[in-house]
Amino acid sequence: MENLSSRVYTVKEVAKMLNMKPRTAYAFCESTDKFQVERVGQRGLRINKASFDAWMPSGTQSANTKEV
Question: Residue 48: is its pLDDT beyond 90?
Answer without folding.
Answer: yes
